[in-house]
């Protein structure tokens, strides 16, 4: 009877070990996926910062063009 119990316990321990190995592999895959997402978000943040920084340049350019159009319209009396 003790031998059967010992065999059963060993089988259960092997199954637990196999399942833990599977869980560890899945966790590793999830960690890699989350790291990739983190890198992607960081790159997106840098692109967004670049856009925000460039907005004043575009606004200045539009303001200058608007002034030019106004001068041309005044000159042409439109």
Walk me through the structure.
- The protein is an all-alpha fold.
- 96% of the residues lie in helices and 0% in strands.
- The protein is built from one helix and no strands.
- The chain has one helix spanning 2-76.
- The radius of gyration is 33 Å and the shape is rod-shaped.
- The model has no long low-confidence stretch (mean pLDDT 95).
List descriptors.
78 residues; mainly alpha
List the helices and strands and how they pair.
Layout: H1 2-76
CA-based shape: rod-shaped
Strand content: under 5%
- Biggest beta sheet summary: none
Number of strands: 0
Percent of residues in helices comes to over 70%
Unreliable residue stretches: none
Query: Structural class, from helix and strand content?
Result: mainly alpha
Question: How far apart are the termini?
Answer: 107 Å
- What gyration radius follows from the Cα positions, in whole Å? 33 Å
Number of helices, where a helix is a run of at least 4 consecutive DSSP H or I residues:
1
The averaged pLDDT comes out at 95
Q: List the helices and strands in order.
A: H
Describe the structure concisely.
This protein has one helix spanning 2-76. By secondary structure, the protein is mainly α. The longest helix is centred in the middle third of the chain and has 75 residues, at 2-76.
């Amino acid at each position: 009877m003790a031998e059967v119990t010992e065999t059963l316990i060993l089988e259960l321990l092997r199954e637990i070990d196999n399942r833990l190995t599977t869980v560890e592999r899945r966790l590793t895959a999830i960690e890699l996926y989350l790291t990739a997402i983190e890198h992607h978000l960081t790159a997106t943040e840098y692109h967004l910062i670049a856009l925000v920084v460039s907005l004043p340049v575009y606004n200045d350019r539009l303001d200058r063009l608007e002034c030019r159009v106004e001068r041309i319209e005044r000159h042409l009396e439109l």
